[in-house]
# Entry
Amino acid sequence: MAADLRYRRVLLKISGEALMGAREGGLDPEVVSRIADEIRSVHALGVELCMVIGGGNIFRGISGAAAGMERASADYMGMLATVINSLAVQNALEQRNVTTRVQSAISMQAVCEPYIRRRALRHLEKKRVVVFAAGTGNPFFTTDTAAALRASEMGCDALLKATKVDGVYDADPFRVPGAVRFERLGYREVLARDLRVMDASAVALARDSHIPILVFSIFENGGFARVVRGEGRYTIINAED
# Structure
C-alpha cells in the first residue's frame, strides 16, 4: 500500500479555527474526532506524519495585541492555546490506537515532551505521529511559520495546509460567487499576489527548503488520504517551471 504514496513524510498544518466547527470558540469534539479519523487513515497507509495545530479557536496573539495587550505576552498566550489543541488531538488519536507524541517549543514536561529534533525524527521513524506545539517558541512568529520550520527540520516531502476549502482561490469562495480556483501556483506568484495561503515568511521558508505546499479540504471524507497519493482536489504551490 505504501508504494502508492506520492508523499511519504508530511507535515499537516491545521488551524485552531478548524477544530471549533460551527462554535464561536473552543473545541468541537465531533470535529476533533472527524479529523482524528482522517489522520488515522493516512497513518495506516504508512505515511510518516507530523502536525502543527494553531490556537486561534482559543486565543489569537494578533487580536490580543490589537486590543491593547503587549504583543509578546499575547503571542505567548496564543502558543499555550496550541498546546491545549495538541493535547486534544493527541487524546483523540490515541483513542484510535495511533501512538502520538506532543513536543512543545516551550518546556512543560509535566504534559508533553520538549522539542528535540533528533527525538522527533526518531518518533517519525518509529511511525509515531508527532504534534509540534507552542509554535516556534518565540513571539512574533505564527504557527504557519512554525509549520514551515518544522517541515524543513524533519525533511518532509510536503507541507499540507488543511482548510475548509479544496484549494487556493483568488477570493473567498464563501463570499465571492465565481471565485477562481488554482490547480498550481509558484511560490513567487503567491507572494507577489498576496494570496494569503500562509504567511509570507512561511511560504519563503518552504521555497528555500524546496518543500511543496498542498492546500486541501480536511472536511472532505478521505481527502487527506487522496492528497498523499497525489490524487483528489488540492492546490499545489511549488517552484515555477
Notes: The longest strand covers residues 9-14.
